[in-house]
Amino acid sequence: MYRSAAPEWMTSKGWDDARASGVATIFDLRNEMERGRCQDHPVLRSHDMAGVTVVHAPTEDPDDEQFLAECGPWLDHPRSWTPNLRLFPDKITGVLAAIADASRPLLIHCAGGRDRTGMIGSMLLALADATPKSIVANYEAGFWGAALHRGHGYTFNPESTGFGASPTQPWTQGDLDTALADRQGLLLEWVEAFDVPTYLLDSGVSEKQLGRLQQLLLG
User: Fold this and answer.
1) Could you tell me the pLDDT band of residue 151, with boundaries at 50, 70 and 90?
2) Structural domain harbouring 176
3) Cβ atoms of 171 and 153 closer than 8 Å
4) CATH code at position 131
5) What is d(CA 193, CA 6) in angstroms, rounded to the nearest whole number?
6) Number of H helices, E strands in the chain
7) How many domains does the chain have?
């Protein structure tokens, strides 16, 4: 399983590499209004995405008032994961059940490959019996990667509850260190406390699908 930012930024060379690696399915965790190509995206050849199935599988309802109240200030923070999972178990289990049945290899992405991808990726790693520290390290790697993506450069404002978008001003080392320090402890607590298998079973994933996920993840 691979993770990435929005694949609209991939060039034809990127798609060549993806096909060479065998990627057959892409799970797009973004909401509908975030999807689609624009004039700034690389121009692709007609066959670049041939043979790749794209599954639109959003993890949230951006118009839900309760979601906006509880998660809105924390959309780029693991603090939003618990209410997100509580509010939309059908969406989350839909993603995991579809991953269990999808052709391999596959790619999971949101906009930056950091937050929604980080949440689903952390759940998958938990199912694979990864250690809590390694799950946190994987999230950190995604956070660093997202900081290099166009449109995901942010300036940290310690007096606000979140981060203000500033695509022309990239993260500094200090910004990243401060942002990750704010997330590490809370994320570790979440990983150690959240029972992923029980959540999935209680939310509608079958034991067969759960077993298939764990078998695939553990080899």
Assistant:
1) low
2) 2-218
3) yes
4) 3.90.190.10
5) 30
6) 9, 6
7) 1
